[in-house]
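Our preliminary data section would be incomplete without showing what the modeling component actually yields. Below, a chain of 349 amino acids is followed by its predicted structure, encoded as tokens that our downstream tools consume directly.
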Amino acid sequence: MIHTDTPNGKDLVQFSKYPDAGIDMQKLIGTQHLFCRYSETREGFIVTPIANMTLQPDGRITGHSHPNEGYWQPYDYGTVPADKAFAFVGAGNKFIPSSVWQQSFCDIPVGYYCGDPESPHKLCLVPNEPTESNSEIIYVIASCLPFYEHTVPKLLEELLAEGIEPARIKVVVNGATTDEDKTINGVDHAFSKHNAWELTALYEAPLRWQFDYAMLIHDTNQVYPGFRRKVETFNQHLPWDIIPATPMARCLLGLYSHQFLMSCSGFLQQVDRMPKNDAIIVEVAGELIHRANAVLAMGDPEANGAARQPEWRESADFFNSGTLRVRRVFPTINLHKYTHTDISDAFNL
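Predicted structure:
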């Protein structure tokens, strides 16, 4: 569960940007951690998983295999004693470091890459207990008035087959003539006059329902076995604002905390009637990622916890709508998204 003594919001950002000197090696050694790239964003930071790993007392690395992280050893040349610092060293030479670690925040060791290609970027090791979350998670389907009756029923079948209870599934239908709540076959539907594509679902969800995290999906998604398990099993060391399905939250897919969405309510309200091309710009720019304080990209347990990029596949008329869409696979969560090949088709919905 999320640590209750962990700082939130701006305090957490300050701790991450100005970490404490030294690492508690007793907490680190022998405990599985999520090895991540650390990147500062406009309002906070994002950690992108590379792999699960464990530092063993004898200097071995288990659970992860890469020449850069062949072994670990104490580091005695920095600003803290050697028993509070370490370096990853190459598997071949066994002494030249690839990264050096001397700082930490919230029990998260922080290091800097020093290998080739030369680029002193930041790394971190997040204590990893990837157990099924005890947080209240709902699944929010973003749809629109002209299309929801055509696409939502099939997706609901797939979600129910995953064992997701109807009460945890919510449908937001944008572009409606009135704001209205309906329950259809046990599933809450929010009809909204707000009309900003998937951003409408993120605007309406925290105003209409209570939850810890909302998993945003599209009515043009298809989920495959294992989807729920992958979504609901995630690192809970920090109170993450967003846990996106890809590092830049492509298609806005991911888990969003109620608190974070409420903090964005003003912005999301302002984008009402936003043209589709502007909505795409907001998505691709990672605007919500940059508004968040703490972001953890989802990791794929089938890739040793690493974050994965979406994969482009074939194009076809998947919905018998007379328009071509391209299949985009999100392997981290066993989900496929079908995207218009011609953006003008979206304008005509």
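Residues 144 and 173 are 5 Å apart (CA to CA). The radius of gyration is 22 Å. Preliminary results of this kind motivate Aim 1 of the renewal.
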